[in-house]
Amino acid sequence: METSTFVYDGDCAFCTRCAEFIERRIPTGTRVLPWQFADLDALGLTAAECEEAVQWVGADGARAAGPDAIARLLGDSNPFWRIAGAGLRFPPVRAAAWPAYRWVARNRHRLPGGTAACAVPSARRD
Fold first, then answer.
1. Euclidean distance between CA atoms 103 and 73, whole angstroms
2. 67-89 residue pLDDT tens
3. 100-109: long-range contacts at Cβ-Cβ below 8 A with a sequence spacing of 24 or more?
4. Of 23, 18, 5, 6, whose CA–CA distance to 108 is shortest?
């Protein structure tokens, strides 16, 4: 694979708004695309993984999910965003980032830009 790829849920308006922010504000060579239009087999991902969290697949095949994927994406940007990505990888911050990420994922339909289509099925929220 020539470039890294960041995959998000294209059915979720909140996730799509976040991806649009990335494309507008964070200069990166990483491809940003919805998992529904990605070649998941080529990326080594499953639909279940992509429904669970954002995914990052490096050009070298390395993978990360959730806030770790966001940190990798930021690490592939300019110095300002690289510092933010390094901060997200700092162990105490990383430990707090996962519960925060899971809360956002469960409540993304309630956040600005979210719609009913963003809701995680109730069976997986519990």
1. 21
2. 999 999 999 999 999 999 999 99
3. 100/67, 101/53, 101/66, 101/67, 102/66, 105/52, 105/53, 108/12, 108/14, 108/15, 109/12, 109/14
4. 18
**C-alpha span between 59 and 89 (Å, rounded):** 20
CA distances from 115 to 16, 47, 56 (A): 11, 21, 24
Q: What DSSP letter does each residue of the chain carry, written as one string?
A: --S-EEEE-TT-HHHHHHHHHHHHH---SSEEEEGGGS-HHHHT--HHHHHHS-EEE-TTS-EEEHHHHHHHHHHTS-HHHHHHHHHHHSHHHHHHHHHHHHHHHHHGGGSTT--GGGPPPHHHH-
Residue 121's pLDDT is 59
